[in-house]
Every structure is written in C-alpha cells, then in structure tokens.
Amino acid sequence: MAKRKKEYDMKTIRLTMSQALIRYLTAQFIEHENQKIPLFGGCFAIFGHGNVSGIGEALFSVKNIFPTYRGHNEQSMAHAAIAFAKSNFRRRMMAVTSSIGPGATNLVTAAALAHVNRLPLLLLPGDVFTYRGPDPVLQQLEYPQDGTVSVNDCFRPVSRYFDRIVRPEQLLTALPRALSILTDDSNCGPVTLSLPQDVQSEAYSFPLSFFDEKIHHFYLKISGNEELNSAIQFIKKYKKPLIIAGGGVLYSKASNNLQIFAEQFGIPVCETQSGKSALKWDHPLQMGSIGVTGSHAANTIAKNADLIIAIGTRLQDFTTGSNLLFQNASCLSINVNAFDSIKFNSHSLNADANWALLQLSKILSENNWQMEDNWTLNSCELGKKWRDSVTEITSKTLPPSSDFLPYEGEIIGAIQRSSQNSFKDDIIVSAAGGIPAELHKLWRSSEPGGYHCEYGFSCMGYEIAGGLGVKMANPNKEVIVMVGDGSYLMLNSELATSIMLDLKIILVILDNKGYGCIHRLQKSCGNEPFNNMLKDCNINSLENPNIDFALHAKSLGAVSEHVTSIFDFEHAMLRARKSSHSYVIVIDTDYRRTTELGGCWWEVSIPETSQYQKVNHARQNYQDTRNKRL
To answer: Any idea where the Thiamine pyrophosphate enzyme N-terminal TPP-binding domain is (predicted)?
Structure first.
C-alpha cells in the first residue's frame, strides 16, 4: 500500500500556473447536511491583458464545474463575493480576478472591507511581467526606488495573507497557506495572490496528488481549562450582566446556544450590526440594537450593567459609544480572534462562541449563578417597551405634516408589512449612511442571517453588489436592498449583473437629494450646510440636479417605478415581490427626519477654535462629554 502511495505521489501532470491554481480550487469542498459541496462558489472576473490569456484560459476549461461570473466593476464584484461568503457564515467563498493596473487597484477597497469584517475573499489580480522584457508594460506603475514593486503591493496591508507567485511551483506552498487563512475562523480574511501575467502562462509538472479532493471542516476553537475556569470565576462576581451578540455568534452558528444561555440565567441580549438576527426580534430577552444606533432599552441596560459579555464582536466605537456607553461595567470578551478578545480592557475567553456558550451554561448552572433581584424582569419590561415603540414607528403611513416627506422608519414598516411570511423569507441588505442606523433599530429579524449590513467598513456602494452576492447564496430568499441616492450613484453597475444572471433582487432607492446622514452630522458639529445635500453644493446650473433613478434602473434592464407615498410604496412592494425580475422602487425621502428614540454619543472631533460661534459651542459640548470618559 505504501509503495502504491509513493508511486502515485511521483506521478505528475503538466499544467500552467493558472491551470494548476484553478484545478486546486475546484478540488476544495465542505460537507453540509451529509452532502459534499464546493468550497468556492466560482469566480468573478473582469478580463484584461493581465489575466485574459492565463487565468481566462484556465477558467474556461472548468466553466461547467467552476462558474465564472462577469462583473461590471472590480470593486463591486468583489463586494458581491464578500456578501456571498458572509451569507454562508464564512463556510463558502468566491475568488475574484482582475487585470493589472486599475483593475487591480479597484479591488483594494474591497480587500480592506473583507479585512475589517473578518470575511474570506480570494483575490487574484494580474501583475506585470517578471522577466521585464516589455518593461514598462501597459498600466505598469514604475517605482524608481524599488524595481520589485507594483501596484499590487497596495494589497499587503489589507490582506491577511499576500503572496506574489513568480514561479509556477510556488503554488505548492502558497495555495495551502491561502486556504488555511480563508478557512480559519480565528484569522479569517482576504488573501491576495498576485499573478504576473508571464508566470500565469508558464508550465510546471505538478504532483498529481496536489489536486486530490479535500474536504474542509470548521472546528470549534476551544480554550484551555485554566482560561475557561478563569472566565467562570470572573462572571460569578457580577449580578447585572448584558450580552452583546456580534457577528461571531452567527459565524459559529451559535444562535441556539445563545438563546439557551440567555434563558437559563435571564440575561438580556442586544446585538451589533453584524450580530443582528442572532436572537429572534420578539424574544422577551431581546433588547434590540446597541450603541450609537442602539435602542433605548439596550443602551439603558448597558449603562446600568456591571458586566458586559461581548460575544464575537470587535467592540468598535459604534458599539461602545466611543468607549463611553458602558465604561462603568467590566467586560468578558468571547472571541476566536485573540486580537479582538482583549479590546476594551476585557477579560478574555479566546474561544468559539458556540463552544463557550455551551460550557458557560453547564458550569454556571452547576455553580448556581443568579442575577440580582428584578434585573431580568426590569430588562424584559424595557425590551417590550422598545418593541412597542418600534411597532408604533413602523406602523405610520403618513409624515407628521404636509411639510415633510416619508423617512426610513415608515418605509421599513411598509416593506415588512408587504411580507407574507412574518419576515422569515426576507433578507435585508444595506451599508453606510443613515439607512443602517434606522434598520439596526427598526428591522425585525426572524431568522439568523435575515439582516445583512456592511457596517464594519461602512462602505458606500456595497449595497447593490452585496445584494447580488446574498442572492447567489440564498436563491430562494427575497433579497431586499435599501440604498440611498448617494450610494446608488457611487456604484450601481451590478444591478445589470443581477439581471444578466437572472438573480432577482428588490432594490429600494431612497432619494433625499444628497448625503443626508453626513449633512445632519455636519450640522450637529456646529457647521453650516455645505457640500452634502445637492442644493448646498457648488452647482453652476440654474436648477438643482433632478435625477430620474427609475429611468436609469430601467435602462439597465430592471423593472422600475417611482412612488410618492408610503401607501403607494407598499403596493409597489407587493408588485416587486410577485415579479421574477430585479425590481427597483424609488421614493423621495426627507433628509431632516430620523428616529430620535435611542442612540448614544459618538466621538467626532470638532475644531478646537473657529470663527463660527456654533462650532465653538459644539466644541465645548464635545469636550465636556469627552472628559467623562477621560
């Protein structure tokens, strides 16, 4: 038997570097419900002279088992790949290839987004010739101080693993390393393999065994007994805990154990943007969103809690209220990533959320750990009061007067009323601006993964491409994308891709004639309106721009309509749900209106001195609040 194995290992196959790379990717699998499923859902590609001949030829040869999807913008197709991975809770992923030069640099923003959000993404940008015969090649950036540098070196700080493949046989070590990062819960993130165009086409005799099928298993990361016991002793000192559920709860598929743990001890639960949908919206212990975009219930409890149990969250400033919201509480951070688990001066439990919750439930029960009298009861009352407020806000169908237009809260209510299945078949997608703030507070999620918001990098332009990726991962779900006019103008091209691939999304465009969220922030900092709303910009025409978004969407192939009221919008949503094609609904909204209830302070630095009195007054308020933390 050993002899046969040795003979097999000695067998080789002559392949180009590109052919070997793609063949290796097609051999990677996961197991799901006793079925073997490809780890990679395929490859997004825009071809150019840096990848059309090498990677393009290799992808063509496997197009029936490893599909290639043509995007319309490198950044947005990478966003779609990221959304696909997030919707699969990091258990599946996609590759993305581009040409050299601008095609590659367009991917850098997406790489940073995946890095910040700890999401797997395999980037395969083309690179310049290694042998330098035609140097400088078209689109090559020349760096006089270092002849080895190309634009692809921009990927180094935004990649978890970076490698430039300058010989075909380097794949033998580079690809296993890449896969180890992409499938590692504790170190997950983007991988960039920079592929010089001449090397893409060079051949090597690869060991046949290198292409054996491999099934990847996602193992629970467990801590040692000492670390677990230390966490138990730490928790037992406190009687007023609050759980913050982050994205790690969803990625470890720990929603069920989270509910069991919370119910067992009567601990209130709140959710970050990434963690929203970890616990059903109407559970008695659900306090809603936390932080700057948080509910009144969650933020009130956070201020009074003596212990924060942060699960699978990196505790960024929108969650912690710029480290002011729960500074009087101690924090236990449960996270597979050691770097994240020590933030906020936390007591660290470096472990998988699912495993940790199971262990904590068992051991704390044996230790008869109990809450302070009325802590659970009072929390539940606050949670119910918040949910009643959400119902009231989202039930309104008319603005407060004829001087106002509809706003996000009323639109969210109309979307959910149009659902025929208690929101279970809907996935809402958003990113950046004011829409995520309203959704974080007001969207009611019934199933894990029913809420998909990119708010780690808060990247305008993610929304439509993200919706496409979510739909690819969930073809039987209704994917609803909420996007502002600013983000739509920034990156809308993958709407055409959704139509080309017959992957229906419902796109709701909220047109407030500018960047309403930053306009409000600008005014709260004491500044005059400037360069955010279109009417406050440097415009040389006699009239403000009036963009027909419905007509633009129709030109891309979507079914589209423009509505003027919540009543008409709700009926449009019913038509959109019945449609088999991507459907766009445009509604004019009021940039002045937001959900005032909830929220907390967020630190945005204000000029220390200014010729404007409003700015000076805002600076004083800023300093007074900041001093409370210091």
So the answer is: 65-132
Count of structural domains within the chain: 4
For the CA atoms of 507, 510, 515, 516, the dihedral, rounded to the nearest 10 degrees, stands at -140
Domain assignment of residue 390, yes or no: no
CA 25 – CA 38 distance, rounded (Å):
9
Residues 140 and 270 in one domain: no
DSSP string, 239-268: SSEEEEE-HHHHHTT-HHHHHHHHHHHT--
Is the pTM here over 0.85, yes or no? yes
Within 425-525, residue ranges assigned H as helices are 434-442, 462-473, 485-490, 494-500, 516-524
The whole-number pLDDT of residue 630 equals: 59
pLDDT tens, residue by residue, 156-165: 999 999 999 9
Confidence of residue 323 (pLDDT cuts 50, 70, 90): very high
- H/E stretch holding 216: strand 214-216
Do 40 and 149 sit in the same domain of this protein?
yes
Domain co-membership, 465 together with 359: no
pLDDT in tens, 346-398: 999 999 999 999 999 999 999 999 999 999 999 999 999 999 999 999 999 99
Instruction: Flag whether 391 is in a domain.
Output: no
User: Over 70: is that where the pLDDT of 3 sits?
Assistant: no
Domain that includes residue 62, residue range: 14-216
Rounded Cα distance between 164 and 158, Å, is 15
Is residue 203, in this structure, part of any structural domain at all?
yes
Does the structure show a pLDDT above 90 at 219? no
Asked if 210 and 100 sit in the same domain, the reply is yes
Structure tokens given for 5: 């194995």
Residue 426 lies in a domain: yes
Name residues whose C-beta falls within 8 Å of residue 328's C-beta, 6 or more positions apart in sequence: 303, 306
Residues 194 and 97 in one domain: yes
Of all residues in the chain, the percent with pLDDT exceeding 90 is: 91
For residues 403 and 441, membership in a common domain is answered with yes
**Average pLDDT for the chain:** 95
Which pLDDT score is estimated for 9? 61
Contacts with 4 (C-beta within 8 Å, 6 or more apart), sequence order: none
3-state SS assignment for residue 287: strand
- CA distance linking residue 356 with residue 257, whole number of Å: 9
Determine the pLDDT at residue 393: 97
Residue 180 confidence class, pLDDT cut points 50, 70, 90: very high
Q: Provide the 3-class DSSP secondary structure of residue 297.
A: helix
Query: Do 103 and 177 fall within a single domain?
Result: yes
From 184, 216, 248, the end of a domain falls on 216
Kindly report the CATH number assigned to the domain that includes residue 464: 3.40.50.970
CA–CA distances in Å: residue 144 to residues 136, 141, 149: 12, 10, 9
Nearest of 603, 598, 630 to residue 318 by alpha carbon? 603
Under DSSP, the state recorded for 606 is -
Whether the predicted pLDDT of 505 surpasses 90: yes
> Tokens representing 491?
């990156």
Asked if residue 5 has pLDDT above 80, the reply is no
CB-count burial class (<10 Å; 0-12, 13-18, 19+) for 225: exposed
Residues 206 and 253 in one domain: no
371 to each of 120, 242, 306, 376, 531, how far by Cα in Å?
39, 11, 11, 7, 51
CATH code of 301's domain: 3.40.50.1220
Please measure the distance between the N-terminal and C-terminal CA atoms of the chain and give it in whole angstroms: 69
| Mean pLDDT lowest among 97-111, 130-144, 507-521 | 130-144
